[in-house]
Amino acid sequence: MDGGRRAFLRGSLLTQAGRAQEAQRQQPLGPPPPWHGRLTLETYCPDCTHPCVSACEPDIIRLHPAEHTLAGIPWLDFSAAGCTFCAACVDVCPIEDEALDRNGTPPRTGVALVNRETCLAWNGVICQSCLGRCPVKAITAKWQREVQIDAALCNGCGMCISACPVDALNIVRQVNT
């Protein structure tokens, strides 16, 4: 029996907190590994041995936990490091699909977004923690404040995420990238 059905039968979906918890359980914890974003990973990954997890040089590929709707599906955890687009994950991936072609430009995993309410720079504190971490220089600041992200330059590598002292940055997956 799936978790949503179990939650319904227990009555936890009758409360606002229960509905919020179920909605959280159904959301991906992060973007999929590079080169895998165009694939339906729910089809390929549940029965996989996940060699991508151990092959990842920056050690940022995680698997959704068993209680999650996407259990066994890999995602990128940017809490300690970002993606270097080294392609080690795609080199060991057993999926045989032309969407995994690593020749050419690295794919975009998403785009960074700034939460202006929690960002120190947007709240009058001079903070440039994320500026130097962006390898493509997609992050700039106006007047040493007001962090701006150029969505056209941002490749969603997540290097800026762990640098932020207040977790004001997030990578949002872009569809059709």
Structure in words:
- The chain is built from five helices and six strands; from the N terminus they run ααααββαββββ.
- The protein is 19% helix and 13% strand.
- The chain has 177 residues and is of the alpha+beta class.
- It is globular.
- The protein has helices at 3-10, 16-26, 41-44, 51-55, 88-92; strands at residues 61-63, 74-76, 111-114, 139-142, 145-149, 169-172.
- The mean pLDDT is 83.
Any descriptors?
two-stranded antiparallel ribbon; 177 residues; alpha+beta; 6 strands
Helix/strand order, N-terminal first: HHHHEEHEEEE
What is the share of helical residues?
A: 10-25%
Shape: globular
What does the largest sheet look like? 2 strands, antiparallel
Structural class: alpha+beta
Q: Into which percentage range does the β-strand content fall?
A: 5-15%
Major sheet: order of its strands? 1-2
Radius of gyration: 18 Å
Poorly predicted segments:
none
- Could you report the average pLDDT, rounded to the nearest whole number? 83
The rounded distance between the terminal residues' Cα atoms is 34 Å
Count of extended strands: 6
Summarize the structure.
This protein is of the alpha+beta class and 177 residues long.
How is the secondary structure organized here?
Blueprint: H1 3-10, H2 16-26, H3 41-44, H4 51-55, E1 61-63, E2 74-76, H5 88-92, E3 111-114, E4 139-142, E5 145-149, E6 169-172
Antiparallel strand pairs: 1-2, 3-6, 4-5
